[in-house]
Amino acid sequence: MAVSPACWADEPFALISIPGCGMDLSKAHASVHVAREMAFAHNGMIRALNSIYQQCIHVSTLIDIADLLKYAQFWCQWLREHHHGEEELLFPQIEKITGEKGLMERNVAQHHAFESGLVKFETWLNDSKPENYHGKELRALIDSFGKILIQHLTEEIQTLLALGQYDGQALKEAWTVFDLEMRKGDKSIIFPIVLGSSDREFEGAGDWPEVPGVVRILVHYYFERKHRGAWRFSPSTTWGNKRPLTFTGDSEI
């Protein structure tokens, strides 16, 4: 897959347009709120994957390679926890609210569609040794499931937007339960990777995710310390500001 020579983490996989732009969100149905929150989360996953894809052929030292492998493993963990939470918490609640059993079945089927490619990617990451690393192999593995994954992440937003005829308060409550569960992961991993793949300027994202400013300070100065080397591959700062990708250039391995 081609990558523009001077692009940020918005390529090669396309980001998702945020629902509700230009709307009075205070009057919007909860389905718009839920779809917006999910789109912000999905875009973070896409940016992080793009960051891995772009930088993986430009790392050269053993420590840089080891940190990239760790960052990619954390990305896989984030994606898996997110989809597990959807299947165990959010989707069953949506089907209960709508009274339509099987409504979210297509989304679950899409999870399974890229599963084999994701497993191969995870296995490769876990088995790789920095001294035997090949960035082009990593890229090829991402190419094997990337398009299917991005299709799923994009189409799920439309599924959520289509819930506008149902109980808005119940949808908000279902999202809150899901969101709180997603924040319970290892704070030295989930907070840095989520905050570090956000973009506060993208289509009115602002300070997403909504956390007190003191939390961002705590993440930056405390929770990021354990895996600091891995966060060099994050496309944004802890405050959601774009920053140049660390590893670019002509060296390819």
UniProtKB/TrEMBL annotation:
<dbReference type="InterPro" id="IPR053206">
    <property type="entry name" value="Dimeric_xanthone_biosynth"/>
</dbReference>
<dbReference type="Pfam" id="PF01814">
    <property type="entry name" value="Hemerythrin"/>
</dbReference>
<dbReference type="InterPro" id="IPR012312">
    <property type="entry name" value="Hemerythrin-like"/>
</dbReference>
<feature type="domain" description="Hemerythrin-like">
    <location>
        <begin position="37"/>
        <end position="162"/>
    </location>
</feature>
<protein>
    <recommendedName>
        <fullName>Hemerythrin-like domain-containing protein</fullName>
    </recommendedName>
</protein>
